Amino acid sequence: MGRVEGKVAVVTGGASGIGRATARALAAEGARVTIADVDEDGGARVAAQLRDTGGEVFFRRADVRSLADLEAVVGEAADRHGRLDVLVNNAAVPVAGTAGEMTEADWARVVDVNLSGVWRGMRAAIPRMLAQGGGCIVNLSSVQAHVGFLGWAGYAASKGGVEALTRQAAVEYARRGIRVNAIVPGTIMTEMNEGIMRDAPDGDAVMAGWVAMHPMGRIGQPEEVAAAIVFLASDEASFITGEVLRVDGGLVVRAG
Fold first, then answer.
1. How many domains does the chain divide into?
2. DSSP of 24-40, one letter per residue?
3. What does each C-alpha distance from 72 to 7, 76, 114, 121 come to in angstroms?
4. Does residue 168 belong to any structural domain of this protein?
5. 242 in a domain, yes or no?
6. Which DSSP string corresponds to 178-213?
């Protein structure tokens, strides 16, 4: 029996990167997974691949900037399977810029997706979870909520807000059966970071800098973050809520 056997999960941003690895890991451990993403081709492709390997996985297009979209996805997953046990709020965008230089539009975009998108997911899922007596929410933060990286003010602020929201919701719903935790990835080799390297004048130098920040001497893989998410979603973590779990190869420890 898998560690999340029979649980019903929704993963936002599940078409690529950490979200894709999480959908795969949850399905492999017995969960019934709905992938939500704005990337229709990518999300449908991932869902089909996972069904081909025996997973019960579906894709529905959803933009985390829309509460109606997330309510529809959550509602469909719950109606199809009779409940909703796990929500993974993973969708995010990388928007660079210093506090004194980024545009108001860029600020609004990164906060709307990375922070408000997490709240919208919770707003859609919590009533369903309360009605059934409980559930589990895992929100994706970043080491940038803990240490400063030059040129990422809005991104860092959005992820710091995710952690504050996680703690608040954990306290609000602990006695009503909902656990809320956050994962803090270090530098992970996702399509997002591949794009940052590709757009940099010297991608090799960027990679060398990332590696140097991690005491383990390497950057992480999406599957390593997904493994931590599966743990928090499982009954093995039944007494854990309000936790901010770093999966960062020691980056924050060294920086601190």
1. 1
2. HHHHHTT-EEEEEES-H
3. 19, 6, 19, 11
4. yes
5. yes
6. EEEEEEEE-SB--HHHHHHHHHSS-HHHHHHHHHHH
59, 119, 155, 231: which is the annotated catalytic residue?
155
Q: pLDDT by residue (tens digit) across 97-142?
A: 999 999 999 999 999 999 999 999 999 999 999 999 999 999 999 9
Residues 215 and 187 sit within 8 Å (Cβ to Cβ): no
User: Over the stretch 193-249, which tens digit does the pLDDT of each residue have?
Assistant: 888 888 889 988 989 988 999 999 999 999 999 999 999 999 999 999 999 999 999
> Which residues fall within 8 angstroms of residue 150, CB to CB, at 6 or more apart?
98
Domain that holds residue 138: 8-185+224-249
The angle at the Cα of 87, spanning 81 to 88, to the nearest 5 degrees, equals 135
List, in sequence order, every residue forming a beta bridge with 12; answer none if it has no partner.
36
Catalytic status, residue 173 = no
To the question of pTM greater than 0.85 for the whole model, the response is yes
Burial of 127 (0-12, 13-18, 19+ CB in 10 A): exposed
